[in-house]
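Hey, I'm writing a tutorial for new members on how sequence and structure tokens pair up, and I'd like a real worked example in the thread rather than a made-up one. If someone can provide the structure for the chain below, I'll link this post from the tutorial.
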Amino acid sequence: VYQSKLDFFCKLGYGKQDICKVLENLGQEALEDDVLKELIRMGSKPQALESQAQPSPLKLVARGSCSTTAGSKWLAEDGSDSSGYLRPIVIDGSNVAMSHGNKEVFSCWGIQLAVDWFRERGHTYIKVFVPLWRKEPPRQDSPIADQHILEELEKQSILVYTPSRKVKGKRVICYDDRYIVKVAYEKDGIIVSNDHYRDLQNENPEWKWFIEQRLLMYSFVSNRFMPPDDPLGRHGPTLNNFLSKKPVLPEPKWQPCPYGKKCTYGNKCKFYHPERPHQVQLSVADELRAKIKVPLSLGKEEEKHNHSL
């Protein structure tokens, strides 16, 4: 009994040391549900099946695990978070600066906070787009704070000014949002802004998909740049996966079936059944035959004979 339970939880991916420790505490006659709960309580997590010393000929698919159809979009990564795995970052400088200045002041310090946040993560390609007229001395109707930061970022080849000029005393400004979306689209990067760019979405169908999938919104909390942990919602990728070219596949969640051994759904049940050690996807009839030790081939021959009659 001890060896069978040890083999069963080893196939699930748990370490032998954790399994032995739980079996010593609960006893060899402990139910598999109780052993699984204790392993989860200890914080033990299943390891990759490929790392097991004795690979199983059958690919184990645990019932109750999270759906892999949604998670398959986020490919596995070898763990290193070098710059080669990180997406380029394109920052809407005007949006970030005005957001940090509470929509009253163009705060260049907010741009610096955003750039530093991505630098600390290891991003090497960071571009900030700001209209050229922001280099002019601040006026009462358009105040600018910490304007020297723009010069420093320009020297570091991070900040890019979008063109603007004066014609007969009137300022002619090029649309900086188009620069931002176009560069991010060509670099297959991330747009950092709280703007939805709805006019550009209607202008180009390809940009519409890109803006919906690659727009990273943010907040400033006590002079701290804070993007959300779930940029595309609770069912989307994590922030680390969103910013990575080769994100990490999320670990499966083990959710036992609420009906337990009384479940009659068979292979249609989407939950995990610890009483089915090999996790073979059998129908209810086949499972009943297995319980009474009737060969599956014999059961199928009986069905063919009944149909012929």
